[in-house]
Amino acid sequence: MSRPWLPTEVLDRALDHRFSFSEQSHATVCEEMDRHFFSSLGGMAVPIRLRVNGVWVHAAQSAVAVDAAPRTGSELLEQMIRKISAAFVAEGVPGNIAHVQAWAIARQLGCAEFLNADSLLSLPDVKQIAYQQALDVSIRGTQVCLHKTTTYKAQGRDALTQVVDLGVTFSTKCSYGGLGDTWRLEAQVTHAAVRLGGSLESDVLLTSDELVQRAGMHFKVPRAPSGFWECVMQVLSRLAGLLGKRGVEVVVGHAEALASLTAVERPPQLDLAHLDEDFDRSALLVSVRQDYGWWNNGVAEYQSIDGHVFRDNYLLDEDLQFEAYMANGEARADRQASLLLEKRQLTAGDDLRAGDRLAPASCTYRFAAQYLTQAVLAAQMRETLLEDLEATLGGDLFRYSMTNHHFITLGGANILSPHKAEWLEYAQRLRRQERAQTAEGSASAAELSEPRRRVDTCAPAPHLAGLSVAEQITEVKKRLVEAVVERIMEAFRGDFVRAWGVLAALAYAEKASQHVVIQGDGGPQFLNGHYEMRQISIFISNPTRPEVPCNAFIKFYSSQTPLCEHGEVRFGRTTIKRDRFKVARMSSFSFWRVTDDDDYTLVNAGYSGKFALNDSATPPRNQPLA
User: Fold this and answer.
1) pLDDT in tens, 243-296
2) Pairwise CA distance, residues 106 & 146, whole Å
3) φ, ψ dihedrals at 555, nearest 5°
4) Euclidean distance between CA atoms 46 and 118, whole angstroms
5) What is the mean pLDDT of residues 80-100?
6) Which residues are CB-neighbours of 171 under 8 A, at least 6 positions away?
7) Where is average pLDDT lowest: 309-318, 561-570, 593-602?
């Protein structure tokens, strides 16, 4: 039976629940998820058991569990975002929009108002308590269906008194004629149902007719029309829907008579105690769903313009923008992997080369500068700049010591030559000793002792001679980095404040370029043993007048190829081993400007890669969604 929507009634309020898609504090969402889903983190006495696509998130709840079950609300939120986003991307939703819409949906699992919405539907009775809760999440294409089931039992007894079910569907679809850059996210409360079983203790009448009567009064169940005028009123109520009025359809009865109605459906095998077919068959069902009129449980339109995502014409906050940007890069990388596996060859990043068809989106430059600025601030807090410089530069300064390659240049000249000549010679001898030890299986003891003797005799500091080769290499890397710091300080005439910006850029700018520009564009990553040729060029302008700002320009260049048998190349969530490749190489560059006030600007950046597969049978390795 249908009746007009009544804003003060519990069933009607449940059907009219409004979902907000606006930003919410990440910490707040994670705290609510901890409280509702993880009793070990000080959560609720009756935590919600969660199942996603038929798989329980906790191994203790089922024989089948995900490989990496989330342990905290933060991990659960990340897992849900990745699963929903991947499903949306597979249906053609742009990666950045898919990510922010997935965030808007996943955060509902940390919204106490939604998670407790079904409590409105239970009959008020102080002698019954909430027993168990389960939330089933089904991700199908562009739809995410949530079904919450809560059971109640009488105090001191195991028999169920009530079971409350609430269903919600979130869906996304392309707006404005399918142009692809605007996608509408909608929420709909699909149904709500209450099943009443057995006795609700002494204040509840036990006869079937009296139970129906009480439920009818509590849920405002309409009577079936018994005369001509009541039938006319039913028709007029539906016509009122054309004028903006809303109506609900209410069903009351026992399961045997209502088996064909979709309102009574519940996801199977929820494994809730005492909830079985016998209970559903004997219980009294009160079900309600939206009927005529225009319903709106929540809607928002998301648009992507030049890499920026807007929700209802408002620009999203910066942190979420960056997450969406990187998610779009991962989606693009997944498409690149599919294209490579299908076509057997791929050219990546050509559209980012200077003078070619396209340049990076404007947000790329801003995100890269922000990424670098945050890294620099973190280094200042930890006071780890020198350590990070050693980690970033020390290995290659040592590696290139035996070559004619100018790894770092300052004003066009090698930053170390002829400075620290004794340390360069020492590094060269250590490099030869390291190579000799690597080939120890084919070298005699005498052949190994002679290079070691030469290393010890040329050690610039006496204490080094007593150290192992590995310890001496660590020390020489540190000294070579210190020599680079000294040269930068000299270039700024001893002004450490001005030199700090350049040193910080040397430590973190190349990582910012690789992460934001290459990965953000969907470019590949070389892993587990690869050859990389790097070059860094520094140009510092020292103005003659103090009011003119000093600018430093740093250019990073890199070329990479897989080297050892364990080498791999990753495209998004797909990793391909070296033996699959006939050709695998990539080059990249970035050009940065650093000013007196430690302002970092990415002037230009790009990359270009060539990949071709052979006929090897080694399959690619895919990362899990969470």
Assistant:
1) 447 777 777 777 666 655 554 578 888 888 888 888 887 887 888 888 877 788
2) 11
3) -115, 130
4) 14
5) 93
6) 142, 143, 144, 185, 186, 188
7) 561-570
State residue 106's pLDDT score: 95
d(CA 330, CA 339): 14
Spell out the residues 6+ positions from residue 581 whose beta carbon is closer than 8 angstroms to its own. Answer: 562, 569, 611, 612, 613, 614
Other beta carbons within 10 Å of 347: 13
What are 481's two structure tokens? 């980095």
**What tokens were used for 334?**
């997944």
* pLDDT attached to residue 241: 44
Q: Is residue 31 within 8 Å of residue 24, measured between CB atoms?
A: no
Report the pLDDT value the prediction gives residue 112, as an integer from 0 to 100. 87
Q: How many CA atoms lie within 13 A of 486 on its CB side?
A: 10
* DSSP single-letter state for residue 74: H
pLDDT for residue 506 is more than 60: yes
* Stronger pLDDT, 156 or 16, i.e. the higher one: 16
Q: DSSP code of 382?
A: H
The length of the chain, given as a count of residues? 626
**Six-digit token string for 205:** 């009448």
CB crowding 484-515: b at 16 or more within 10 Å, else e: bbebbbebbeeeeebbbbbbbbbbbbbebbbb
Residue 587: exposure state from Cβ atoms within 10 A (0-12, 13-18, ≥19): middle
